[in-house]
Amino acid sequence: MQAQGIALPAGQGSAKRGRARRSQVAYTVAEFAELLGKHPHTVYDWIRKGQLPYERIGNTYFIPEHALGRLRSPAHGGDMDADPPGGEAA
Question: Which of 13, 19, 64, 77 is most buried, with most CB under 10 Å away?
Answer without folding.
Answer: 64
